[in-house]
Each structure stands twice: as structure tokens, then as C-alpha cells.
Amino acid sequence: MNAMRWILFTSFFQVWHCFENLCRKNTTSILLSSYYANNKAYLANDGNVKTTERCCSYTIIQQTKAWLQVDLGEQYSINNVKIYYRSEGDLDDQYSWKQYRFRQFYLDVSDLPASETNTTQRTRCYTDNTTYPDLPPNIIDIPCQQTARYVIVETTYDAPEDDPTEGAILEICEIEVYGQHLKDSSNLLILYIVIGILGVSFVCIQLFKIRQGIPSSMRTKESQHDKKSLPPDNKDTINAYQSLMHVRQSSHYEDLI
User: Fold this and answer.
1) Which of 91, 118, 134, 191 is the most buried if burial means most Cβ atoms within 10 Å?
2) Cα–Cα distance measured from residue 44 to residue 175, given in angstroms and rounded to the nearest whole number
3) How far is CA 162 from the centre of its chain?
4) What is the rounded CA–CA span in Å between residue 124 and residue 108?
């Protein structure tokens, strides 16, 4: 029994740790639709999750569309995407930098790059519906259980706080795409099935042991209690049926004689 418990524990541990940050693989590349000064795309994939200006990548102004693309190099089984967006200081402080440019962004996946596709050719994982003056969270973890090569964060939102500056702008400080290789995904399905079988077996064994641990005298008393607890009408019916069967058996015996 201890061996089964250990197998269940290690299986769940493997499932919990099966997804890796695919952005940190050597085969992954990050691309921006444009970049401002030294705030280039690599800042969104350097492992630094600080959300201050110097730690973030961001696009230039006066663009109708802004996007950040993660190219995984090949198809992967994606589980979730975590984004850290620029935000500095206290949100209650009027002089702090808030994530107002992050409103109404959307997250897509595709097997073709952002420069060659539009939103109708991709698979949508998430759309932010925040409107002025509310703010979206600057750190968001988005479920995105899809198979794809490209992960695209895009926006066409022109924040009113930017007036008189116009255009869509992205300020992404870090992006993490969690998933696994397709062959590992198949192995995970098998692991889920094994865990399910082991879990059911474990429960059945425990129930059997509990049942076996009840003294036979107690099980007899329980049966007698159940019989006594029948409604009176049911007991009369049973007694009448037993009497009828006894009479039939007696008559049959007399005929044989």
C-alpha cells in the first residue's frame, strides 16, 4: 500500500512539473512590430519580471497596430501564457505609470507569423474587455491550451491618456509561454490514464479493507436491524408469502405420497 501511495505521489508531481517556459529555450525568438530606443524585444524574454520602464520592451507611437510575437521554432503543445506589463509606483498616485495602454489587447496563437496573418487566420486565446477609466491587471496568466508555433500579443487600442499622442502601443516587460513538446504531450495523456486507474484501485482497496475490518457480528446485527426497520406492511407481506410457500410445499409433498 505504501508503494501505491508513492507511485501516486510521484505521478502527480510529474504532471505538476511537466510544463516548462518555452520562451527560455534556445530555439525561441521574440519579435516586436517596432521598438522604441533601446527598449527592444529581448527585454521581454530576459528572465527579469520587473515592470519598470528600463526592464520592458515597447513599441513606437503613431501605429495603428502593435504586436509582440513569440516564435517557438516549431509546433508545441501550449498550456498557458503569462504576461508582465509595465506598471510603476502606486496606482493611487496620479504621477505613477499605469498600464492603461494594456486595455483591450488580445492573445492569439498561429502556425504563421504575425506579419503574414490577421486575427481571422489565428486562434484566439484571450481578449481583454477593459474600458476607460478602468485598468486591466498588469500581470496576467492566461490559459491557452492550443497547439501552435507562434504566440502573438496584439493591440489596436489608442489610450485616451496618451492624448495628444496617438496610436497603439505595447509595453511588455516579460512574457512566459508554458507548454511542452508534442511527443511529451502524448506521454502526459498516458500518465493521466495511469493515474486514474491507480486512483480508482487505491479507493477500492481502501473500501475493501474497511469492509473487512468490520466484525461479522456487527454485519449480522446490521442485517437484523435493516429487517426490523422494514415498514409493518412489508413484514406482513413477507410473512404471508412465506406461509403460502410452506402450504404449497406441503401440498406437493402429499401429492407425491
Assistant:
1) 191
2) 6
3) 35
4) 4
- Higher pLDDT: 253 or 221? It is 221
Which residues are registered as beta bridge partners of 36? 39
Which pLDDT does position 52 carry in this prediction?
97
Whole-angstrom Cα distance, residue 79 to residue 181? 11
For residue 119, pLDDT beyond 50: yes
Closest CA to 77 of 188, 185, 190, 193: 185
The CA distance from 154 to 106, in Å, is: 6
pLDDT tens across 142-171, in order?
999 999 999 999 999 999 999 999 999 999
Nearest alpha-carbon partner for 34 in 77, 2, 65, 3: 65
**Residue type for 140, please?**
I
pTM assigned to the model: 0.69
The full 3-state SS of the chain, as one line of letters, equals CHHHHHHHHHHHHHHHCCCEEHHHCCCCEEEECCCECCECHHHHHCCCCCCCHHHCEECCCCCCCEEEEEEEEEEEEEEEEEEEECCECCCCCCCCECCHHHCCCEEEEECCCHHHCCHHHCEEEEECCCCCCCCCCCEEEEEEEEEEEEEEEEECCCCHHHCCCCCCCCEEEEEEEEEECHHHHHHHHHHHHHHHHHHHHHHHHHHHHHHHCCCHHHHHHHHHHHHHCCCHHHHHHHHHHHHHHHHHHHHHHHHHC
